[in-house]
Write the structure tokens for this entry.
Amino acid sequence: MVASVSIHPVDLHVGMRLRLRRRELKVTQSELAGHLGISFQQVQKYERGMNRLSASRLYEIARILRVGVEYFFEGFEGVSSNGGQTAA
């Protein structure tokens, strides 16, 4: 039996912002992966929110894509752990 995967809204939002910025700069997943020393499949997982980005990896990506770390959280309105709405 395969366990269902629950993607956290923050991971999904950060991944979408990562993909948006990468495409704005016309950087391929393979090129970004090369700069990070990882596979393009790992970049895909980050962009889909399937794998979480560590703080240090997010910092590296922000530097490579020439944005501040806060860029990845712009426009995010999430759900707190108790179910209430929270603005980032």
Summary: The longest helix spans residues 9-24. DSSP finds four helices and two strands in the chain. The radius of gyration is 14 Å.
